[in-house]
User: What shape does this take?
Amino acid sequence: MKILVPDTIELDLSPAEDDVVVYQVDKPVPAEHLDAEVLVVWRNTAENLASAARGMSRLRLVQTLAAGPDTVLAAGFGGNVAITSGRSLHDGPVAEHALALILAAVRRMDQLMDSQKASEWNEPYNIAQSAPDTERLYTLDGANVTVWGFGSIAGRLAPLLAALGAKVTGVAGSQGERYGFPVVAADQLDGILRTTDVLVSILPATAETADALNADVLQALPDSAIFVNVGRGATVDEDALLSSLREGRLRAAALDVTKAEPLPENSPLWTAPNLILTPHVAGNRPKGASGLVLTNISALKNGAALTNRVA
Assistant: This one.
C-alpha cells in the first residue's frame, strides 16, 4: 500500500511496513504518486486538496490531522473515499490556548500590555480591578462559563476552568452529562446565555453552525460577558461581533480563528475595541498523530471501523 504523508509534519509510520512517500502540501501530487491509496493531510492548500481529489483514482482514505475536517470535505473527494479527522490530537494544546485567551480576556491583559508598551503604570486599571462592584469581572472564581461544542477539547478544558473556581456548563446536540459536567441541548441555549460570564465556542464548521454565534446570541449575553472562539471562524457572524464590541454590549472577546485566514490587513477586526486576536495557533501541533494514522491504516487493511470517520 502506498501512503502519502505531508512535508509539514514528521510521522513515524515504519510499523506499517508500507511504501511511505513524503509530498509537498502546496503543490499538486506528482503524477508518479497519484496511485496512492492513503493521503495524510496537514496544513494543505485548498488547491493541493482539489488536485488530489481529481487525480488520485485509487485513493481509499484521506486522514486529516486537523480536528476540523471542513477543508478536506470541501475538496471534492468521491463518495468511495473515506475521510477521517484528527479529533483528539489537539485536545491538550487547544485547551491550553483557550484557557490562556479566557484568562487574558477576563484579566484584561490586552489593556495591561498596551500600558507596558506606553511605559505607563496603569493606575486606572488597578482601581477598576480592585473596586467592590467589579469583583466578579476580573476572576474565574465563581464565574459561569458556557462551552458551546462540548467534545473532547472541552473535556480537557472544563476541569481546568473548574479548578479555578468556574461553574462550567456545556452546550451540545443533546442534554446530559459529559466528562462530569452538565450539558444542555442547543435549544436551551437562550436561558443559559443570560447568566453567562464567559462564552467559549469550540464549534466545528458545518452547514448547521455557520454564523451560529450571531446577533441574537450575543445580545442574549450580559454586557459584562466575554466571548472566546477557538473553534472555527465560519461559526461567528463577525459583523454582529464587531457591533457588540463597538457598542459596549460585550466586555471583551478573544479570537484564535476568523472567517478569512490569514486575516486581511484591512479587516476591521484588527482595530476592534476590546478584542484579542491570535493567528489560528491554538492547535498547530497534533499529539499522537503517528498512532492515529497507523490505527486507521490497519483498519483499512482489515476492513475494520475507522477512527474519527466523518465521511
The radius of gyration is 21 Å. The longest strand covers residues 167-172. Residues 41 and 64 are 4 Å apart (CA to CA).
